[in-house]
């Protein structure tokens, strides 16, 4: 199951039906399950999660679907997410070792279309988005 393709498919389905909903992350979970983390400008309520679930009826025929809010440690998956949260603390986990580490936690100090820059305990490091395995905000 290719979650990048699925996320694109889900975004295309939701765009006309739920224009305020942003799909932050699609994760494969046990068996044939999918976990969708979504956001909405007015916050994510149970009603928003139910509307998203109903809008994805075709997907529910193939997968067990779990729809949830991002919570305080919101995932960062797109360049716009990193830009929006400049100045906040984040944890960025890379696919491979970089300077002897895979996890960098610190302040987001820069974001372009190609990479994010984080002031971590080990120093300031620029990480290309393609090298990021997973990233999220962390509590202050």
Automatic annotation (TrEMBL):
Chain ranges of the Ribosome maturation factor RimP C-terminal domain: 76-138
GO biological process: ribosomal small subunit assembly; translation
UniProt KW keywords: Cytoplasm, Ribosome biogenesis
Occurrences of domain Ribosome maturation factor RimP N-terminal (ranges): 30-72
CC terms in the record's Gene Ontology section: cytosol
Tagged with keyword Cytoplasm: yes
InterPro entries: Ribosome_maturation_RimP, RimP_C, RimP_C_sf, RimP_N, RimP_N_sf
SUPFAM superfamilies named among the record's database cross-references: YhbC-like, C-terminal domain, YhbC-like, N-terminal domain
UniProt keyword annotation of Cytoplasm present: yes
This protein's name: Unannotated protein
């Amino acid at each position: 199951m290719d979650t990048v393709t699925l996320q694109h498919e889900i975004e295309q389905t939701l765009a006309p039906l739920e224009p305020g909903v942003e799909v932050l992350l699609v994760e494969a979970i046990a068996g044939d399950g999918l976990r969708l983390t979504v956001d909405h400008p007015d916050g994510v309520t149970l009603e928003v999660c139910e509307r998203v679930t109903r809008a994805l009826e075709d997907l529910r025929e193939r997968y067990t679907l779990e729809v949830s809010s991002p919570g305080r440690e919101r995932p960062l998956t797109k360049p716009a997410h990193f830009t929006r949260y400049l100045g906040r603390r984040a944890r960025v986990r890379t696919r491979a070792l970089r300077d002897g580490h895979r996890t960098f936690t610190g302040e987001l100090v820069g974001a372009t279309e190609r990479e994010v820059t984080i002031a971590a305990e080990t120093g300031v490091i620029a990480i290309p988005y393609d090298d990021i395995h997973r990233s999220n905000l962390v509590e202050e």
